[in-house]
Structures are given as C-alpha cells and as structure tokens.
Design brief:
The chain has 200 residues and is an alpha/beta fold. The protein has helices spanning 21-34, 71-77, 97-106, 128-133; strands at 9-14, 39-44, 54-56, 62-64, 66-68, 84-87, 110-115, 137-140, 143-144, 151-152, 154-157, 173-176. It has a domain at 9-141: Rossmann fold (3-Layer(aba) Sandwich). Helices cover 18% and strands 24% of the residues. The strands form 4 sheets. A 6-stranded parallel sheet has the order 5-2-6-7-1-8. A two-stranded antiparallel sheet has the order 3-4. Helix 3 links the parallel strand 6 and strand 7. The radius of gyration is 18 Å and the shape is globular.
Length: 200
Amino acid sequence: MHQRADQGWIEVICGPMFSGKSEELIRRLVRFQIARVPTQAFKPALDTRYAVGEVISHSKLTLTAEPVTSSDELLRAVEDRTVVVGIDEAQFFDDGLIEVVTLLANAGKRVIVAGLDLDYLGRPFEPIPTLMTRSEYVTKTLAVCHRCGGPGLHTQRVIESDELVVLGATDAYEARCRRCYDPGEAVQPSLGLEETAVTA
C-alpha cells in the first residue's frame, strides 16, 4: 500500500458467507498488532453466534473485539491513540456507519471493514456497497459453492424466513455459485445457456 504513515484510508473486505472475510480481517489486524501499531476491533452487539467479545471466523481464528450497538457508539469508542480500526459484520450496522468510517479515515485512521455485499435475495446489502465506492482498497472474497464446488458468489438461505437479518451459520446458510443459487422467489427463467454451443 502506497500511503503515508499518517494518512487515513478505507479498506473493504466483502463477499458471501463462508468466503473468509472475518479471517482476512483478523489477518490484517494481527499484522498491525505484531508491528505494535495501536489497533481496535469492533463487531455488532447483536452478533452472538460464537462469542460476545471476539471476532471469530468460521475457521475458528479469533481476535478480541468490542461489541457495539450502533455506529455512533462505535465512533465514541475509538481511542485517540488508535491508528487502525477493524469492523466486522458491517452489514449489521446502521447506515450511519458510512459517515463514521469516512470521518475516521479523514481523521487519519486506517479503517478495515468486512461484511456481506449482497443479502440472501442477491440485493446490495448496505452499508457495504456504498463503503466500497468510498474506499481506497476493495477485496472481493469468494466461497466454495456447497452444491458443485464452483466459485461461491451468493449466500443461500436454507431455512424459511422473510426477515432480512437471520443469524446463523451452516445451519441456516450455504454458499452458492451463480448457477446453483436460488433466492426462493419465482422460478428463474432459463437463459438456454446450457443449450448454446460456443465454437472458436
């Protein structure tokens, strides 16, 4: 990264569930901690799937994190001495997170945000899409499709619920590729791609 040491910026790590977003966030924050750069990590208080005071990846990597209930609370909790701020599961925060992250970066903080970019219906999942447009660096992670082993772009909900936010892991969700993904709405019309021969 070609940035001055005193210059803030925003990094976004996005993708579906099971694609290693939290794992990558932890990896980046630990690198700064090894270099003795003051860091803080935050997570939404409602995410209690594994532990309250830790970011935990599906591969069981862990990092101490402070649970907060809103973007305003997060902003108040950032210490002056902190250089790097990590935020996990950003899709569970309110839209005020966009302004908070921007303020922190403008104040010279390096902000690393991880979260889903699409919801279970395949729609943009704010605030990640807007943060992507305001960030210096974007990392798009892919999972492995639970059905065919292809590139998992989508998060497939496998339990019945119309709620936008349903906490869960492999009990409620799977990663799916473009072909295997089915949002559960109307039957998707066939594009006939499997019947089209492509010749060189």
